[in-house]
Design goal:
Elements (H helix, E strand, L loop, with lengths): L5 E6 L9 H8 L5 H9 L3 E3 L2 E2 L12 E6 L3 H5 L9 E4 L3 E6 L16 H8 L20 E7 L2 H12 L4 E9 L7 E5 L2 E3 L7 E3 L12 E9 L3 E8 L6 H8 L23 E9 L6 E5 L4 H9 L6 H6 L4
Length: 323
């Protein structure tokens, strides 16, 4: 992929007389996708007969000269090192555990091609460039804070992926949710999750009339403290579906505070979903040593707990998690 601008000069051969410009460019510059070349036309980066071309559907004639400014793609700019301050909880030659702040995107994607955790990892250590996704083996939503595992060697990445698939990595979260807690102090949710048919930007519990369902999803929940307006819940993931805790809590009629996507409301200063990855327990991917990592919730979530009348202290919360 391009890292610098390149000017490409093309002359239309007889066999392409009358072709659409984007169709011809796809043949004349075959190393780039037609969609990318069409975007260049839209951006005014293609000159035809000395003037900027604006329509990909414009027809060309034999002998026409095209000048194409091949600009770096967004994807090419995404996978570059960007130094950033990482809150490192643990690091050795094979494993990195970081405390991700809310607001940090994990992987580059449309709308967030730079400034992601992946960019920071590429700058943090040279070996990240040779690893799948720079060693990232699981993700947190942009506005979820807390602990994340990252492999620093290929052996560690492969071992961590296997351990997560085998449910040998204990991932536990703190969730601050709306409403007085209903039901048992400890309960499980086993409800399949898939894309919401009414809103493709959301996930949902999916059980269709024809018997089809979403992907299996299991979450264990334990009430840590509660009031008439809110509840503090420990959540253990057994599967790793997109938005799993947020969807299951909303399905229980306890949407997370601040989670406007799933029915929550901004309250007590929380303008993001009140969800924090607070505890990780696993065997070291290379040495096999048992590891436990803890992260107290960030200040915005602690303030919201206090304002909602819920008690928080690290020892009390830690004793309430699942072993």
């Amino acid at each position: 992929m391009l890292q610098d601008v390149e000017m490409r000069h093309c002359e239309v051969p007889p066999q392409m007389h009358g072709w659409r410009t984007d169709q011809a460019l796809a043949q004349l510059i075959p190393e780039f996708s037609r969609s990318y070349l069409k975007q260049l036309i839209t951006d005014g980066a293609v000159m035809l007969r000395g003037a900027p071309l604006r329509k990909a559907s414009a027809h060309i004639a034999v002998g026409d000269r095209l000048v194409v400014e091949l600009r770096p793609t967004q994807q090419a700019q995404a996978f570059v090192p960007q130094a950033m301050a990482l809150d490192i909880v643990f690091e050795d030659a094979h494993l990195l555990v970081i405390n991700k702040p809310a607001g940090l995107v994990v992987h580059p994607a449309a709308g967030n091609w730079t400034g992601t955790l992946l960019n920071g990892l590429l700058a943090h250590h040279a070996g990240a460039a040779g690893l799948p996704r720079a060693g990232i083996v699981h993700r947190l939503d942009k506005d979820t804070s807390g602990l994340m595992l990252v492999g620093k060697s290929r052996a560690a990445v492969d071992a961590l992926v296997r351990a997560i698939a085998a449910r040998e990595v204990n991932r536990q979260y703190l969730a601050l949710a709306h409403g007085a807690w209903k039901g048992l102090v400890e309960q499980g949710v086993d409800q399949p999750i898939g894309r919401d048919v009414h809103n493709r930007l959301r996930m949902a519990v999916v059980r269709n009339a024809d018997g089809t369902t979403g992907k299996p999803a299991q979450t264990s929940l334990r009430l840590l403290d509660g009031s008439q307006q809110a509840c503090l819940v420990a959540c253990k993931l057994h599967t790793g579906r997109t938005h799993q805790i947020r969807v299951h809590m909303a399905w229980l009629s306890h949407p997370l505070v601040g989670d406007t996507v799933y029915g929550g409301r901004p309250l007590w200063g929380m303008t993001r979903q009140a969800l924090h990855a607070a505890r990780l327990q696993l065997s070291h991917p290379i040495t096999g040593d048992e590891l436990v990592f803890r992260s107290p919730p960030p200040q915005d979530m602690q303030n919201a707990m206090a304002e909602s009348g819920l008690r928080y202290n690290e020892a009390r919360v830690d004793s309430g998690f699942f072993e």
